[in-house]
Amino acid sequence: MEHRLSKRTDGKLGVLVCKRGMPVATGQVRDASNRGLFIATDYNDVQLNQILDLEFGFPDKQEKQFRRLKGLVVRKSENGIGVDFDGVENDSFTILSLIEWLKQHHRSTSHFPVRKQA
């Protein structure tokens, strides 16, 4: 049985995964909470406890500004990666904006298409 410390919000939003500021993969946020999120991706060149930068934008917003969060890799699977926001510095407003956007846009398409690694 899984025990979560915060409620997850399901949704779909394209995300760019970066290591040390360089884009390395695309994926799709599938669920998020105040404490972390799960990214569906076939990218697997990550280690547990590695910090990743996550870049995303809200497709329906007037502004075309991308937002960034940092996440600590806490889970890897063949379907994607789970990242935790604890222990890394993030803007809580950006996290809350992401969760609210996911709540309002359950059927949205990704900004970055998920691509298979070559």
Automatic annotation (TrEMBL):
InterPro entries: PilZ_domain
SUPFAM superfamilies, per the entry: PilZ domain-like (SSF141371)
GO molecular function: cyclic-di-GMP binding
Domain named PilZ: residues: 25-94
Descriptive protein name: PilZ domain-containing protein
